[in-house]
Amino acid sequence: MRKPLLLFVLALLAGAAMVWILQFGSGYILISAADTTIEMSAWTGLLLYILATALLFWLLLSWRWIVGAGGFIAWWNNRRNTRRTNQTAAGLLLFASDEWQEATKRLLQSADRSTMPVVNLVFAARAAADNEQFDQARQILERLKLSYPNSSFIADKALAELCLLEEKPADAVQILQSIYATNPRDGALLRLLADAYYLAEDWATLQKLLRDLKHYKAISEQDMASLEQDVYCNLFDQFTACPESLINQRRADLENVWHQMPKRLHRDPEIIAGYGAALGRLKLFDRQQMLLIKTLNKQWHRQLVEQFGELESTSPEKQLMVAEKWLLRHRDDVDLLLTLGRICQRLQFWGKAKDYLSAAIALRPSAQGYSRLAAVLEHMGDQRASAEAYRLGLSILLAE
User: Which structural domain, as residue segments, surrounds residue 356?
Assistant: First the structure.
């Protein structure tokens, strides 16, 4: 409020001063051009001069604004940028709609004029890859690396993803390892590395990567648990029967894998089953039996029960005694009854084997149960009943 009032007072003073000066008289200005003569007081001429100068300055400033950043050029640039952005957006919408070929075309056409050229090229490459135009996708990504060196990391990740789509995990690993050292915390890079090792079935290297995947939270807890289970089960599957000259080394390697894994995984029944099966293949039957008994006493699991029945125990009588104790708590467990029938079959306790297998079939008929019962009946000399059991088992197998 004070500032307008001050300007008003100054304007009054300036007007009063002008009137006071004019009282002392003034000269005049005469302008003659051909037959035209213009005469005015000096003060009027001065006023016109000031007004003309102000008008000229205003015109110059207006022109500068029109052609400068705040006027026509800004409007033109905004219009051009909007058009380019709309072209990129149209390409991305086509990509989202699975229109791969048209999306690639539209994104490439607008890439050089786009305000987001890297986005254009990355999604153009992905659209080409999704359309199985792998060579074109690779060319686009190479163009991205050459034109925009700062985007090489993004381009390399996209190239690795392209290799995975082409089912070339070894090539993907080679690309990813070259950039992993400088970007060990990048979640997307870690996920791609995990996928590459998984497809390459390089379980030992993937095991070493699990720690970083968990530490940097590259995948969800649920996916992490599933991946850990897959990795260790596949690692245990690699421990197969081997010559006697190598068996001690293989046994030591197996124990290293078991003891190096997180302790919480020692309670996972799937992993325990894998470890137990590996112990059996390396002829560590007593260790396998102890592991299964200890685990099944704490948590019941169908796969472990089946494995206990397949175990080549060095003390099958003890094996039978333990299983019969479990039967007190799991009377109607079909898998346990089949396991008891198998153990009795190995011990040649044909009568008990027949009873256990018949009870299992009564609860849940299965081809496996009938096959085992047929073999027991055959050893007992009942050929007709054995043939009937084989027939019933075969009919179930064919119906599946």
Answer: 332-400
Judge contact between 291 and 275, C-beta under 8 A: yes
- Asked if residue 388 and residue 302 are part of one domain, the reply reads no
For residues 316 and 311, what is the distance between their CA atoms, to the nearest angstrom? Answer: 9
The verdict on residue 78 lying in a domain is no
> Is 347 found in the same domain as 271?
no
Least confident window among 71-85, 119-133, 165-179, 290-304: 71-85
Alpha-carbon distance 257 to 282, whole Å? 14
In a domain, 193, yes or no: no
pLDDT confidence tier of residue 89, bands split at 50, 70 and 90: confident
What is the pTM assigned to this prediction? 0.74
Same domain, 310 and 363: no
**pLDDT tens figures, 340-391:** 999 999 999 999 999 999 999 999 999 999 999 999 999 999 999 999 999 9
> Is 237 among the domain residues?
yes
pLDDT in tens, 29-58: 666 666 677 666 666 666 666 776 767 666
From residue 258, alpha-carbon distances to 111, 230, 245, 276, 286 in Å are: 53, 14, 22, 11, 17
Could you say which DSSP state residue 185 is in? T
pLDDT tens digits for 228-243? 999 999 999 999 988 8
Are 374 and 337 in the same domain?
yes
Contacts 24+ apart (CB under 8 A), 184-190: 184/212, 185/216, 187/216, 187/217, 187/218, 188/157, 188/218, 189/157, 190/216, 190/218
**DSSP secondary structure letter of residue 166:** T
Are residues 392 and 370 in contact, defined by beta-carbon separation less than 8 angstroms?
Answer: yes
Question: Does residue 286 sit in the same domain as residue 372?
Answer: no
273 and 356 both lie in a single domain: no
